[in-house]
Write a structure and sequence with these properties.
The protein has no helices and eleven strands. The termini are far apart. The chain is about 0% helix and about 50% strand. The strands form two sheets. Strands 2, 4, 5, 6, 9, 10 and 11 form a seven-stranded mixed sheet that branches. It has a four-stranded antiparallel sheet with strand order 1-3-8-7, with no helix packed on it. By secondary structure, the protein is mostly beta strands.
Length: about 120
């Protein structure tokens, strides 16, 4: 059904910025809530941020508050994660995930579809 592909990862110095994109295909993005997750080497996958169908957002990880911003452009079928003031601790593979929601404008607790991930490395 819905397919997701992340892009925008790469190598950046501490204090720098990256914008990740999550491109959806196969279905209309407007019907889905989207979450961003990350997994660092040797660590469990953690939720980073999520965005509802209508654009309401929430930061799941306290470590990214004030630094990461999630947004969506349904017309382009893309969700973004703007990452500022990056720290070495942000190094991880970042994934986006989607959940179909009929009428709820919330961030869900689980997801139906996942992208393959994009590597973000923050290092001097």
């Amino acid at each position: 059904q819905l397919q997701l592909v992340e892009s925008g990862g790469g190598l950046v110095q501490p204090g720098g910025s990256l914008r990740l994109s999550c491109a959806a295909s196969g279905r209309t993005l407007a019907s889905y809530a989207i979450g961003w997750f990350r997994q660092a080497p040797g660590k469990e996958r953690e939720g980073v941020s999520c965005i509802s169908k209508s654009g309401g957002s929430a930061n799941i990880a306290a470590s990214v508050k004030g630094r990461f911003t999630i947004s969506r452009d349904n017309a382009k079928g893309t969700v973004y994660l703007q990452m500022n003031s990056l720290k070495p601790e942000d190094t991880a593979v970042y994934y986006c995930a989607a959940r179909f929601l009929f009428d709820r404008n919330v961030c869900p607790g689980d997801y139906d579809s996942w992208g393959p991930g994009t590597q973000v490395t923050v290092s001097s």
